[in-house]
Amino acid sequence: MNIAYDTLIDEFVEHERKKGTRSLRKIPYLLRPFFTWLEEAGLEFVDINYRKANEYRTYLSRLQNDDGGVHYAGGTVYDIMHAARRLYDFLKTKSLVYANPFTGLKRMKRESRLPRNIPDEAKMDELLGSLREFWKEERLRDRRAVYRVHVIAELLYATGLRVAEAAALRAEDIDFERNLVMVKNGKGGRDRTAYLNEYAARVLKLYLQRMKKTVNRGGTGTL
After folding, report:
1. Whether the model pTM is above 0.85
2. Of 39, 65, 79, 141, whose CB is crowded by the most CB atoms within 10 A?
3. CA–CA separation, 123 and 129 (whole Å)
4. Which residues are CB-neighbours of 195 under 8 A, at least 6 positions away?
């Protein structure tokens, strides 16, 4: 993704921050497929009309992994399309586009409701924030333990991986140049790709390159 698009996403994130939007860290992840699609199609964001927006939704729904499995679940497609619609609302406020091509699309429904025991965004922010303060633990072994939980929690929150999938990851499964995580033998025995946000990528890279041997002494090649 080119620098101009990165800058645009940063401006959009700041705009959403001022509005009080939660889960800002998910925004780059949700918009990355859109800008990748634009580049592959040779389009600019100003070229998108209702027909192109519908083509993008179809592209997301039909995208497949190397093994032929569905790349994005229905709920993920919903979130990605919602992010694109919000982005174009922002572009209208900047007078960069005259209309939002995603507004006219019939909104998709989520495939299923989330379990009731999943914490809301505020509670997740509070939990992740407390784990980032691992250095406040009195004992060294406790700091190491909470630090590792902090790394794993950021990974899980950014990518949506299951605990077992994260536990099976190896350093070579992570592409830090593109912030991608290759999940092997995931749900249903299928391989898939997950995306890291910038913060989670920095946390994970620091852990693997400098901290893993100290924190996870005697461990295996997995995280």
Report:
1. no
2. 79
3. 10
4. 29, 32, 158, 159, 179, 180, 181
